[in-house]
Design goal:
By secondary structure, this protein is α/β, with parallel strands linked by helices. It has helices at 14-22, 34-46, 58-69, 83-86, 91-96, 113-118, 151-163, 175-182, 186-190, 216-228, 237-249, 254-269, 297-306, 329-346, and strands at 2-3, 51-55, 75-79, 99-103, 132-138, 168-171, 195-199, 210-214, 274-275, 285-290, 309-310, 312-313, 319-322. A 7-stranded mixed β-sheet has the order 2-8-7-6-5-3-4, sandwiched between helices. A 4-stranded antiparallel β-sheet has the order 9-10-13-12, covered by helices on one side. Helix 2 packs parallel to helix 11, helix 3 (58-69) crosses helix 10 and helix 12 (254-269) packs parallel to helix 14. It is globular, with a radius of gyration of 21 Å. The two termini are 25 Å apart.
């Protein structure tokens, strides 16, 4: 099966498996797992923050950030196409009494400053209004096709947030894709945010785990939230060892995933009945539409699966394909051929 639903389907490398079996362990809830501590130190350094905390998932890391930053009854400004808003089960509302205010997401993944400004009440002393306590951005932006937010925009956003007296949290699940694609180091990208989450278990290929990074006092509070949410993992060094391999040897190879995505988009662009913009593909996510007569998304996905290819429906009439370490150039060529066959047979 050619797996293109997500880069979460990556499997750990042999080096990761070996490191996991040899990890020196302790109790991480007590702060005594040396491998987890090493990972957190390296992770914090990699995004230019003073401290970091290992979390079981990106969802928990983002949730902990929101609960630390925003008091009960406050609101978080999030993109209406963001993962935090759409795919994380409304956790901040359920667990922390935090209101989500969705802001229109532009095609490049940015949130217009005028739209953000409109979310602030005209009179912050009026008790009728929930007050904004945080702005969240996503980089790269999943639902916008893996777009990278520009440094200029992030600097502008940071000035806006500082002027309004609230912090910025970056959902940087794929921040190293952004860094590799632009040549801008991850710490420079993360410098525009007060806190950042990134995943070890997507393109970096670790089997589990995400990192939340920020100031030391912020991370201390996040650890308490992690415990409350059930994320205290005791001998966490077992999978922290894979995370260390991910950060030391798996970042540069993300360029291969970007090349595979460009190859896929270019191939799909040659297929009559497929609508894709190769110029919009900058990292490892390809979004396209099936326009062939008589072939809706469900029939398309079923037909390609029958031929050994899996992709995902992605809303707004789009299909998503994600490239990752488990795919070769030959796999991508085969995927294009399968799509072409399915479209041709339906015509």
């Amino acid at each position: 099966m050619i797996e293109m639903r997500s880069d979460t389907f990556t499997l750990p490398t042999e080096q990761m498996v070996s490191a996991m079996t040899q990890a020196v362990l302790g109790d991480d809830v007590y702060g005594e797992d040396p491998t987890a501590n090493r990972l957190e130190e390296l992770a914090a350094k990699s995004v230019g923050k003073p401290a970091a905390c290992l979390m079981p998932s990106g969802t928990m890391a983002n949730l902990a950030a929101l609960l630390v930053h925003v008091p009960r009854g406050g609101k978080v400004l999030v993109g209406n196409e963001s993962d935090i808003y759409l795919y994380e089960a409304g956790g901040a509302s359920v667990c922390g009494g935090v209101v989500y205010e969705p802001i229109p997401t532009r095609p490049d993944g940015t949130l217009a400053l005028d739209d953000l400004a409109a979310a602030f009440p005209p009179d912050p002393d009026d008790p009728q209004f929930a007050l904004p306590g945080l702005i969240c951005v996503e980089n790269t932006h999943n639902r916008m096709g893996g777009r990278v937010l520009s440094q200029a925009y992030l600097a502008e956003l940071r000035r806006f947030a500082t002027g309004h007296g609230i912090p910025v949290h970056m959902d940087g699940a794929r921040i190293f894709n952004a860094a590799v694609a632009t040549g801008v180091p991850a710490e420079q990208i993360a410098a525009h945010a007060d806190s950042i989450q990134f995943c070890l278990s997507k393109g970096l290929s670790a089997p589990i785990g995400s990192i939340l990074a920020g100031e030391a006092d912020f991370i201390e509070k996040a650890r308490r939230i992690r415990k409350m949410l059930g994320g205290g993992m005791r001998q966490a060094g077992v999978f922290a060892a894979a995370g260390l391999v991910a950060l030391t040897s798996m970042i540069d190879r993300l360029a291969e995933d970007h090349q595979r995505a460009a190859q896929l988009a270019a191939g799909l662009a040659e297929v009559d009945g497929i609508d894709v913009d190769p110029g919009s593909v900058t990292t490892n996510i390809v979004l396209f539409r099936v326009t062939a007569n008589g072939l809706d998304d469900d029939r398309f996905l079923h037909a390609i699966k029958q031929r050994g290819l899996v992709m995902g429906e992605f809303g707004h009439g789009r299909i998503r394909a994600v490239t990752h370490r488990g795919l070769s150039a030959a796999d991508v060529s085969a995927a294009v051929a399968i799509v072409a066959d399915v479209v041709r047979e339906a015509s």
